[in-house]
Structures
1.
Amino acid sequence: MMDKKTEKRLINIIAHQYQPEKSREATDPDAVASRLEGPVAPGQLWEVDDRETHAMAFVCGIPEDDRRLVRVIPVGDYDNGYDSRDLVILPTGSPTGFPLIAYKQFETTIPVRLLSVPYGSFDGQTVATIRSFVGKFDPDDEDGATLSDRLNIQDRFERWHARCGRLPELRNVSEDGFAVSRDLSGYLEALRTVLGLAPAQCLAVRRGTLTLTDEQEKRMEEAGFGNRPRTTGALPRSFVELSEQPRWRFVADEYIDRHGDPSMSSFDADGAARGMLARRAFALAARANGTGDEAVMGMMAKAAGTMTERTDDDR
C-alpha cells in the first residue's frame, strides 16, 4: 500500500501537468460572454467577488424556493495547499486546465449576484467525485494548508453567506405574472385588430390615458374582450429572481455608479438597480412572445439596453 507522502508526491507530479488549451478556453472573453448568457447551473466553476475580495466556487445547485441564492463549495488554487479534508482536482478534470482544491468542508449558500466570471463546467465524473467526497481531518498530515489559509477561505465565504440576509425581501411579487401578461397581450392585440387603433393609442388605453367610446367598448365586448385586464403592482417572481443572474451584474453596477453610491455597486443592497431592470423587463411582457425563463431573459436584455444608455448629463 502506498504511504501518504509517496501518494502526495505522485499527486504533485500529476497536478503540475497543466493543460494550457483549457486555460485559454476558460478565460477567452468571447467564451466567457457566451457562458454569461446562460443560467447559473450545477457543475459550473465561477469567480466570486464583492469588488474587494475574490475566490472561486463550484456550483452545487440553485434552491428552488429562492433562485436569488446559489449553493457553492469554495475552490482554490492547488498551490494554496490542502489536507485530508479537501479534494484535489487534477488538470484533466479542471475547466481551467490547472489543478484546483475543493474545500468541501466550507460548502455554503451565497447570493447568486456575487458570481462574476464563469470559467466553464466540470465533466460529469469530476462533478460526481466532488459531490460524493467526504474528507476527514488527519492530525498527522504535516503538509496540509496552513491554518491561516483555511481560516481566510472560511471567513470569506461566511461573510458572503451573511449577505443572503441583506437581499431585499420578496414582497409584492406574484407567482404567475405571465397570466396577466397573456391576457393583457390579447387585449392590446384586439385593440389593434378590432378597433384599428395605432400602437401608441393601444398603449394609451393600457395606461388609462385614453378612454374607449361606448361604441368601441361594445365592439370589444362582441369580440370577446368585454373586461379590460387589470394589472397590479406585483412583479412576477421569475422577473425578480432572474434579475439577480450574473449576466446583469455589469448593468446593475453601471446603473448605481451613475445614479447612486459607487460603494454599493458590488451588492445593490436595496435592490434599486435590479428592481429597475425587473420592472422595465416586465413592462415589455405584454408585447413579448413566449413565456418562461428564456422569454424573461430576452425581455431583460432589451431592458438592460435602456439602463446602460448614456444621456447628455452622463457625458
2.
Amino acid sequence: MPDPNITQWRALMDFAERGGLPSDIAAWLLPGGYRYNAACKAGAAVGLDVALGLGKPGRHGWWTVEARENRDAFLCEFRQRDYAHLNDAEAAREIAALARRKLYFSSDPRLLAALKLGLRIPDAKQLRAIFRKSAAV
C-alpha cells in the first residue's frame, strides 16, 4: 500500500496541473514540484523547501530566517521604546545584559517564537549591527 503522504503529494501536483489552484500558485508550485520529483527519482537529496525556492542548500531554513527577522524587528522596537535615550552601543549593552540575566523582558510572540527555535538574544556587537541595519532601511 502506498504511503498516504506520497499519495497526497501526487494528488496536489495533479490538482495543480489540472488548473485547480490559482494560476500564480500553480506557476510557483509546479516547477518546484517537478524539480523535487526528478531529484527524488534520481536519488538526490533535495528538500522540498529547496526545490520550491524556499531555501538554499546548506543554509538556514526559511522558518529560522523568518523568526530571526521577526526577533530583530522586535529588538529594534524594544530599543526605540525603552532605550531611545541611549546611543546604539549603550542600548545594545543594556539589552544584552538583560538577556544574559535571562530577563527576556517581554512575552512578545515574535521573540518567543525565535527562542523556541533555539535562536538566542544576540550579544551587544550583533545588536549594534541589527540596529544599524534597521536604521538604514
3.
Amino acid sequence: MPKAEFDKQGKYFWHLVRRAGWNDERVTQLFIKRWQTTHWNALNAQQKRAAINMMRSYAEKSEKNKIKGMRQGIMALVSREGYDLDWLHERMEEWGFGSSMRALSYSQVIALRQTLNGCFVEQKSKETKR
C-alpha cells in the first residue's frame, strides 16, 4: 500500500518534529495517547492545529537548549585557551557579533564558534612553526 502524502501542515509538523529531535516512534505514541490514531492524515483540522502548536513549543525548547550548549562550549573553548570573558566580548564586537552571546541566533553562534576555532588553530600553527 503506498504511503499517503502529507498536506502543507503535515510537512510543517514533521519539520518541527525533526527540529525538536523526536523520532517517528515517539510521534506515533503521542498520536495514540492524545488522539487515538497512528497517522497525521487521520487527524481533523483542530487536532492538527493542536499538534503543530505542541510540537512548535518542543522545537523551540530544543533549539534553546542547543544554543545554550553551544554557548557553554564556546566559553569552555575560550577558557581552555587561557582567555577570559572580557577577551571574548572584545573579539565578538571586533568581528561584528555584538557584545552578548545570548542575543545571537543559532546560526550566529555556530559562526562565532567557527571563527574562534579558526583563530585558535592559527595561533597553534604559529606556535608549532617556531
4.
Amino acid sequence: MTSLGHTRNWQPCRKCGKVHGPPAPNIPREIDLTPDFDLGGITGIVLGDGNVISDKKNRGIVRLGSTEKSYVDLFTEVTSKRFPNLTVGRQDEWKTYRVPSGKWVTGHVYWARIYSKRLFEFFRPHKMNDYHWTIPPMILSNIVSKRGFLQGIYDAEGSISIGKRGKYTICLASKHKSNLIPIQEFLTALGINGAWDMHNQAVLRISGRNQCIQFGNKIGFRIARKAEKLPTTFKRRWRNSDLLPWEMKTEW
C-alpha cells in the first residue's frame, strides 16, 4: 500500500528479473551496552587509537587502523566476542604514512571497521577534535569496566621500557593533560602511583619494579609484546638479618 492507500505493482528488476519489495527501513541494530570489562577495553582502544566517523551514506563507522596486524586481530577478536550480532570488516592496504618522528614510510596498514549507528552514537560525543577525549559515564559506573578501560587505553597509548639498570617504567602519553587526569585518579584508587612528566606532551609515568608489578596484577596489557615485558616477582630488599655474621655491613 502506498501513502494514498493504493496498491503498488512492483515490476521485475531489469538486471536480475526478480521482483523486489520496497527498501527496508534504516533501523539501527540493537546492541548490548551493559558496562563490563570488554566494553571498557574496547572504549579505551577506540578513544586512544580508533576513529569514529560517518561515510557518504551517513552510516556510522567505528574503526581501528594500525601497522601491527596482531593488534588489529586482537581488537577484532574482542569486539566480535562482545558484539556477536555485529560484523567486523577487515582490510589491509599498502600506504605511505607519517611516523611520530616526522619521517614518511611506506608499508602495510591493517584496518578493522564496524558499521553500527549505536556504537557511533555511543563513542562520538567522547571522541573530539585535536586528540581530546572523555570517558563515557557508563564506563565509570563500576570498577570492572573502569579496569577494562585502563587496560584498553594502555594497550592503545601506553608503553613499557626497561632501563640499563633494570628499572621498569610504564608511560601513558597524550597531547592534553586533561585526558590523563582521570587515569591518574583511577591508578591512585588502585594503589598505583603515577607521576607527571611534561615536555611536548603530557606523560603519566609509573616507575619502579614493584609499582609495575602492581600494574600488571590489577590492570595489565592484552597486547603480548607489552605484557611479556612486565615483571612478575617483587624485588627483594636485603637486610642484615638475611646475611651471615661476617657478611653484615657495619658502615654505610
